[in-house]
Specification:
The protein contains seven helices and two strands, in the order ααααααββα. It is mainly alpha-helical. The protein has a two-stranded antiparallel sheet.
């Protein structure tokens, strides 16, 4: 497995931390002062609005990334870690203001990054294996890389959902806007 590693553990950890550090500020810039019709727009039933994406990212900080990293280091492949409820954020964010959620996300991410730095400083083996309830065997390396890419995925989702609200208004320029070519 080590032969498949493209970058060293130190560089990988640094890159992941850099990306994860930027997400709360990026999400804040994208969402703060966004009109409610854009903030709460989605792409259809069962999809996330930009507001819901924020709640989902917050829930990941609570129930997913660091808890799963610790689970891998504690239990290895002996027991699958608990499933992640992708929609648990809905109740948690109901009737809360955007500003409050943005502030809480920053705090949650700072806590998560602190825990991640401790895991890395503790010399955790990034190739330590765990057991995902659906995907089967995974490694800590894969989990951490997925955390960073998951953030990027949802940042792209926020911009895509907002762009789609102007789908009909762009007229023939739609042919030059790949963000509008995405299947919903």
């Amino acid at each position: 497995m080590a032969d498949d590693v493209l970058v060293g553990d130190d560089m990988l950890s640094e890159d992941i931390i850099t990306l994860l550090t930027r997400t709360p500020g990026t999400v804040r810039v994208l969402l703060q002062d966004l009109p409610p019709d854009l903030l709460h727009a989605d792409e259809g039933e069962g999809t996330f609005s930009p507001f819901s994406v924020l709640g989902h990212l917050m829930q990941g900080e609570i129930d997913d990334w660091i808890p799963r990293a610790r689970w891998i280091l504690e239990h290895g492949r002996e027991r699958a870690f608990p499933p992640f409820d992708r929609f648990a954020h809905i109740e948690r964010t109901r009737d809360r203001s955007l500003g409050e959620l943005l502030d809480e996300f920053e705090t949650l991410r700072e806590t998560g990054l602190s825990a991640l730095r401790e895991v890395i400083a503790g010399g955790a083996d990034l190739d330590a294996g765990g057991l995902h309830p659906e995907l089967g065997e995974v490694t800590l390396r894969q989990l951490l890389a997925t955390w960073a890419v998951h953030d990027l995925n949802h940042i792209a989702q926020i911009t895509r959902v907002v762009a789609h609200q102007f789908d009909d208004e762009v007229g023939p320029w739609k042919a030059y806007l790949p963000i509008l070519q995405h299947e919903r």
